[in-house]
Every structure is written in C-alpha cells, then in structure tokens.
Specification:
alpha+beta; OB fold (Dihydrolipoamide Acetyltransferase, E2P); five-stranded mixed beta barrel; 7 strands; DUF4920; signal; DUF4920 domain-containing protein
Length: 159
C-alpha cells in the first residue's frame, strides 16, 4: 500500500513540475535569454548560414533571424524565416528550455549547431501537428525533405 501511495505522490509531483516549467517561461522581450547565457556578438544571418552550409555540412556558432512559428503545445521548437524557402527549424538542446508563444515575429540570436539533413515524413507530420496545422495539411506531407536544422544551446531576444 505504501508503494502505491508513493507512486501516485511521485507521479503527481512530476506532473506539477512539468506544468510549472511551462508557466515559468518569461515573455519574449528584448534582452530576455532562454537556455545558455549568450550575446548577439558575431551572429551571422540566416542567409549567411545557408551560404556557409553550401561549403560545409555543419556550422557551430550564432545565427540571427526572425521567428515565424513556435510549437503551440509547449514551445519545444521554433522556426526562423528564410527568403523563398521553408523556415529553418530550431530545437533546444536536451529539451532544456522552451519558447513562449509571443516570440513569433521577434528577432532572435540562437547559439548552437546547424546542420544539413534529411527530415523524415513522420517528423514533418509531427511538427505540422505541433504547429496546429489542419489534418488535411498534415496529410499532404508525403515526401521527406532536405533542410537545415539547428540545435540551440541558448536563445536571446534581440527585438
């Protein structure tokens, strides 16, 4: 009996902790940082990142861009605007931090590793669902795509 009570108490504590993390995400205002402490110095643009990745398979550093979407469920990823292309997906190292919904439209600097990779249909459909896309939009995703993906250690809201 003690084990059952302990199990439910532990489950309750973990559930409350996970919901508390979502509520404690600060609003996206200039100067607010998420994850690792970073600065905007030496950040390159998304366009420059694309050029860098034509010569290499990976880039390690800071990238500046405008946020166009964020995961509607809990802010577990966001996307950065690209000219004439699909946005670049930014995920957060070890899901160590999340983004607020009001970060959409803000200019940010992310620090981490950017890579070219092929994204599976299942991953694309999962991301579309998390972004709140309709089932018909999700069903239209039938091919994997080659894209740029960023795993960020930190995010700084610039403006």
């Amino acid at each position: 009996m003690k084990k059952i009570v302990l199990f439910f108490a532990l489950a309750f504590a973990v559930t409350n902790l996970s919901f508390a993390q979502q509520k404690d995400i600060p609003a996206a205002k200039p100067g607010v940082k998420y994850g690792k402490e970073i600065s905007a110095t030496n950040a390159i643009s998304v366009a420059k990142l694309e050029k860098e990745l034509t010569q290499k398979n990976a880039f390690n550093g800071k990238i500046s861009g405008k946020v166009v979407e964020v995961c509607k469920k809990k802010g577990c990823f966001m996307t950065l605007q690209r000219d004439g292309e699909e946005p670049i997906t930014v995920r957060f190292k070890d899901y160590g931090f999340f983004m607020p919904a009001d970060i959409v439209g803000k200019t940010v600097v992310v620090e981490g590793i950017a890579k070219k990779k092929e994204v599976s249909v299942a991953s694309l459909q999962h991301a579309a669902k998390d972004l709140g896309k309709s089932q018909s939009e999700i069903d239209q995703i039938t091919q994997p795509k080659k894209d740029i993906s960023i795993i960020a250690d930190g995010v700084l809201v610039v403006k």
